[in-house]
Amino acid sequence: MTARFQSFDDTADRAASGPRIATLRAELARRGLDGFIVPRADRFQNEYVPPSDERLSWLTGFSGSAGTAIVLADRAALFVDGRYTLQAREQVDTGQFEIVQVTETPPHQWIETTLREGQKLGYDPWLHTVEGAERLAKACAAVGASLVPAEPNPVDAVWADRPPAPLGAVVTHEQKFAGEPADSVRDILAGLADIREPGAFESDLKALGAAHRNVRLDAAGAADAIARLVAAGGGKVRRGPDPIALMKAVKNATEVAGARTAHRRDGAAVTRFLAWLDREAPAGRLTEIDAVEALEDFRRDTGVLKDISFPTISGFGPNGAIVHYRVTTRTNRVIAPDGIFLIDSGAQYEDGTTDITRTVATGQPSEEMRDRFTRVLKGHIAISRAIFPEGTTGAQLDSFARAHLWAAGLDFDHGTGHGVGSYLSVHEGPARISKLGTTALKPGMILSNEPGYYKAGTYGIRIENLVLVVEAPAVAGAEKPLRAFETLTLAPIDRRLIAPAAMTPDEIAWLDRYHADVRAELSPQLDDATRAWLARATAPLV
Amino acid sequence: MTARFQSFDDTADRAASGPRIATLRAELARRGLDGFIVPRADRFQNEYVPPSDERLSWLTGFSGSAGTAIVLADRAALFVDGRYTLQAREQVDTGQFEIVQVTETPPHQWIETTLREGQKLGYDPWLHTVEGAERLAKACAAVGASLVPAEPNPVDAVWADRPPAPLGAVVTHEQKFAGEPADSVRDILAGLADIREPGAFESDLKALGAAHRNVRLDAAGAADAIARLVAAGGGKVRRGPDPIALMKAVKNATEVAGARTAHRRDGAAVTRFLAWLDREAPAGRLTEIDAVEALEDFRRDTGVLKDISFPTISGFGPNGAIVHYRVTTRTNRVIAPDGIFLIDSGAQYEDGTTDITRTVATGQPSEEMRDRFTRVLKGHIAISRAIFPEGTTGAQLDSFARAHLWAAGLDFDHGTGHGVGSYLSVHEGPARISKLGTTALKPGMILSNEPGYYKAGTYGIRIENLVLVVEAPAVAGAEKPLRAFETLTLAPIDRRLIAPAAMTPDEIAWLDRYHADVRAELSPQLDDATRAWLARATAPLV
User: Do residue A399 and residue B403 have CB atoms under 8 angstroms apart?
Assistant: First the structure.
């Protein structure tokens, strides 16, 4: 068996947190600190943190992708958002940690009602952004306490078997995939990007502060430690958005062509998976983990899979309703032949990053399921077909994905789409389709289009394709340059879950046309049996 | 002839601005000021300013509803937005004032490139909000200049024939219209609202600052002078949104009932006007002013008209394309029998404020006109029919009004809707339907629904009804409380401008149902001839 990218261990160790928090408290006392903040973060503010930075999980047992703990001498709290409240209660020793809903009581607010005058709350300046640290400092100051840097990180001091930091080789992304030579990035950064040892970073930052009066820094994204080192060198931090983010978000012609190629390749792998699932699921023996492994194997068969984009979300029935579900050996469910199975996955190829969700009926779907799926599909199609003037933001489009759910008193509690990198992070700013998406959508941007519906404890539905912002075809009499989306993702959408009577002729035409494209693009890559399956799966709706 | 509310004088006096600016400069020199800022504002930051506060118009000749002038010793600039650029060039002596597009170069940016170190720029702290004054002060500081209060206002010192301030009697809005006793407002303000002489305001503010350590103030809405007086009294200004704005925006049951009554009454007056227009326009002798006067007279016939909500926008052909057009004796056009006439008007009744726009074909409309009108109507209907969960903001709905225009490469450069007061300002915050509308829509709020399309130099289209946010009827299986709009405005929408083939069955059903409601509600109030006209105007579309 191949070593796969995804593992399914449940790393939570509830019993360990008692002794661990005790040693941490002793360390804090030794340093004269009254408390310490433990965010889930590394020094690069990455979305996915390496094992060596999983301090929050080590200390609390909580393995979710977002959270913060504050440990004081006599009490401790774990702050998580709504999607993780249940998971936190299962994984964490609530005798040690109170679980706090972060949207109701964020850490800074908890600090204001909990810390006492004169107390010192430690933080690791590498693990908080400039703005994040400011918010905490302000909360401490409001009660006469103070936020003080604690370096080296006190958790590291007591974490005996801490894994080593990742040590991968630096690889140049070839120009045939990137579209530009690696030097061009160095040119932009004007000499700053000569590759140096990590240890030189701190002294370089001080030198930068000394050499330049003003150093621009993205206060919402850069570690507070960076600002402190620039200031220590005598520099003044000027705040401004990271200019590289927008450059990355707008893909060049090579990246766009690569994305199309990657999606044709990935679509064939996903289609082989969907055909396999249809064949195997009726026996009622497949599990969520089986599905993840099979899908990774189909992608590996392409011969060019570099990694998965993120841990596959593979949820049957009630597990499908957990938006950020990650299957473990403990939660693994059989994909029974009588429900809905949701699978959200992606691949990293050198020519592009993919991200696709399909929701599949494994038996006769109920009328309610078909109604919900059709509403989600109508929202998905509304985004796909949107035509909008230059300058339009994702916030202005987001509601098109929701209107048909709203009409039934339903909604989904996440954005409609996120930006996607090119052989980079599958979640990439600054553009997104969400009510918070204030960045104008520019041709070359790649975003996800993923409305959903989640019936807690019962089932989940999500239909996700990646779309590319393009110039819309010219319209006679148009007064403004128009933009539209080109759908990149190629894989059938389960017709068994659609209520055709609820679809408009335009929506049916979109679906049939999409399925015809899927069939035309993927068939040449498939074996006879899968090709025949795809022909059935992409037949006209009515 | 009755004295009407609206006048049509062109008050612009281009020749006067030379001598006036000269006397202002002499006054500034006498006070040691290098310049002075003249906004169009009164000390209450009202939208409509009384003649005694029309300093900008007096100084520059510009009579638009928004603008700012800065006068320096050797140059002067008038800042206006896109809708007023043309008008400003016509009204203002451009030898005295350069006309600056405010969205391209706002005053604070102009200051940064124009003022010199050590210069003193005067401002009247009563005419700028706290935030506005801060922005100007920051710009001055950036170039080593300073923003200094200039009281009394230097313009007033040289404005020889300045009209007296308005001196109307204080009238209590009766409880049968307001739904609450006047005392309840006083209770909210806890003793602050005892009616006092205007002259006592300044000393009261100082006393307030002295008596209370913290004084809450809406920095985006309150005059900078108020913050200065609180501070002079020793108080500390705490910034926060005005708590009364949201209370006013959510109408109580009496106000809602009053709004319905007012709209039935107003709809009958507007319908009499539309029937009259249809009868008279073919002769080709009516002018835009005739239409304004006739409409005001039909409203006056109700016997309870207290005022018009705002100067009626009455634009035929090219004038209809000017979004904030105000007809004067100089611009007045004949309503020819071969085009489109747009009329946007409103009435103030004690039980409610109305605001309605109708666009009428006075001849055989072109195919393009019908296409554009139909797209605007489809957007209007999309807002009218929207169903959305509790907590949804106007920003989330705005695009529904635009999607059909976007598809043709068209748009309109204003928000879809504004809040409306109850026998108060026709433009009322905080809720609005626009991409800037971040306030959740609550049952009881009244907003306008007014998408449009403007073909510069040719014609303008706008369809405006007022809508009331209501609880939507229960839907089986709904997981969230739903909101919807109830349309308050009652008057026919010109069927001659609609292309039925471009309408969906749902849209046609909405229109026919709306027209049936209009007919049922208004017919009993109309004479036979108008009733017959209304029956034709509200016949089913196809």
Answer: no
